[in-house]
Amino acid sequence: MVRKKSMKGDYCPSARALDVIGDWWSLLIVREAFDGVTRFSAFQKNLGIARNILSERLRKLTGERIMESVPDPNGGAHQEYRLTAKGRDLLPVIVSLRQWGEKHLFAPGETHSRLVDSVSGEDVAALDVRSQDGRMLSADDVVIVKVREDDL
Predict the structure, then answer these.
(1) Residues 47-66, mean pLDDT to the nearest whole number
(2) Which residues pair with residue 80 across a beta bridge?
(3) DSSP codes joined into one string, 62-116
(4) Which residue, among 82, 73, 89, has the nearest Cα to 43 in the 3D structure?
(5) Does Glycosyltransferase appear among the keywords (predicted)?
(6) What is the mean pLDDT of the chain?
(7) Is there a contact between 100 and 56 (Cβ–Cβ < 8 Å)?
(8) Closest CA to 112 of 99, 125, 121
């Protein structure tokens, strides 16, 4: 099995983020947590994920403080997994992936789940990238300023 290189010391925020949450299962677990899933058995059932893989991903997500393991609020023997503030900050990431998928991976008129505002019932507006002064930005309008070794 090929082991991937850790990006923990990389100067790119995207590389570091992907090091923590960049695999298929981790993002799907976070998505399920946003949908209110808290129990190991429910994550396993909803995702069809093997127990050992789910255990390992939950261990990583709790170790990175994206999720936390808390005792059953009803006094049961099981633990519940809940998003932390750091985990809840992933909402725009999940929404952005979802909206990209809706735009590029479904045929026009093809049925798919919808993300709606829980108060109004309206579809969530498309995310966009804006400048500090509020202008809409496209990929042509942004550049990545890389860290040079001299800057360290």
Answers:
(1) 98
(2) 39, 70
(3) HHTTSEEEEE-TTS-SSEEEEE-HHHHTTHHHHHHHHHHHHHHSS-TT------B
(4) 82
(5) no
(6) 92
(7) no
(8) 99
Structure tokens at 86: 């750091």
Task: Return the sign of the alpha-carbon dihedral for residues 147, 100, 38, 88.
Answer: positive
> pTM value?
0.87
Residues 6 or more apart whose Cβ sits within 8 Å of residue 71: 79, 80
Across residues 110-117, what is the average pLDDT? 94
Instruction: Determine the Cα angle at 95 with ends 90 and 96, to 5°.
Output: 95
Q: What is the 8-class DSSP label of residue 96?
A: H
- The DSSP call for residue 94 is H
Task: Give dist(CA 20, CA 89) in Å, integer.
Answer: 14
* Structure tokens given for 24: 């298929």
> Do the Cβ atoms of 97 and 27 come closer than 8 Å?
yes
pLDDT of residue 4: 60
Q: What is the per-residue pLDDT for 146? A: 87
Complete domains list, the chain, with CATH? 13-151 (1.10.10.10)
Rounded Cα–Cα distance for residues 2 and 86 (Å) = 29
Task: Retrieve residue 64's tokens.
Answer: 């990175």
